[in-house]
């Protein structure tokens, strides 16, 4: 079983003792600056530089991911940003949305591992403006991370609020993944 650490906070300001070398952006298919986590990541990394890097590797299909340098986040020991594109829930049937969300997590894990990442931090993908039902998004995230065949050895889930922190902690504890 792959251990998952749950932390509450801003994915762009993780404590240095976590030693995260890659963060995941809950990106859009165009790999453009967005709101929420995406907007925070672009701002912290350097909007101009990250936008140019994303333009060079995008677009990205739903359920897939792309990788860019971290630019200003390198000062925190973060080398890469993986841009994982989850589904907009109401654009798909439930089974297809679940398949695409699982694929987004697993694609991000595989891409990070291929680049030598040892610890990756994820937000809860598609659970905000993309409308994925919260409890299902938590279950898909934890399951996808556990079932990934190729992944960095250490995974952190970053919860921006208390509700997400509690749900992720409960899910990880229930599976004995700490």
Q: So how many helices?
A: 5
Share of residues in helices: 25-40%
Which spans have pLDDT < 50 for at least 5 consecutive residues? Answer: none
Distance between the termini: 9 Å
Structural class: alpha/beta
Major sheet, described briefly?
6 strands, mixed
Would you count the extended β strands for me?
Answer: 6
**pLDDT averaged residue by residue:** 95
Spatially, the strands of the biggest sheet line up as 1-6-5-2-4-3
Strand proportion, as a percent range, falls in 15-25%
Q: What is the rounded Rg?
A: 15 Å
Q: What is the overall shape?
A: globular
Order of helices and strands: EEHHEEHEHEH
3D structure, described in words:
The chain has 178 residues and is of the alpha/beta class. It contains 5 helices and 6 strands. Helix 4 packs across helix 5.
Characterize this entry briefly.
The chain is α/β, with parallel strands linked by helices and 178 residues long. 39% of the residues lie in helices and 18% in strands.
Descriptive key words:
about 180 residues, globular
Task: List the SSEs and their pairings.
Elements (H helix, E strand, L loop, with lengths): L3 E5 L13 E6 L8 H10 L1 H11 L7 E5 L10 E6 L8 H21 L4 E4 L11 H14 L6 E6 L2 H14 L3
Parallel strand pairs: 1-6, 2-4, 2-5, 5-6
Antiparallel strand pairs: 3-4
Helix pairs in contact: 1-2, 3-4, 4-5
């Amino acid at each position: 079983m792959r251990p998952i650490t749950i932390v509450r906070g801003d994915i762009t300001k993780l404590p240095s003792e976590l030693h995260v070398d890659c963060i995941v952006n809950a990106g859009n298919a165009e790999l453009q600056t967005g709101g929420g986590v995406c907007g925070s990541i672009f701002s912290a990394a350097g909007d101009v530089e990250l936008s140019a890097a994303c333009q060079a590797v995008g677009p990205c299909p739903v359920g897939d991911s792309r990788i860019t340098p971290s630019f200003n986040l390198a000062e925190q020991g973060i080398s890469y940003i993986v841009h994982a594109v989850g589904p907009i829930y109401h654009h798909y049937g439930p089974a297809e949305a679940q398949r695409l969300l699982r694929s987004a997590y697993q694609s991000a894990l595989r891409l990070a591992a291929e680049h030598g990442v040892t610890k990756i931090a994820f937000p809860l993908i598609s659970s905000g403006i993309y409308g994925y039902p919260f409890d299902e998004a938590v279950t898909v995230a934890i399951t996808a991370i556990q079932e990934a065949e190729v992944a960095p050895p250490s995974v952190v889930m970053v919860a921006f609020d208390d509700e997400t922190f509690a749900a992720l902690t409960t899910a990880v504890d229930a599976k004995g993944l700490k």
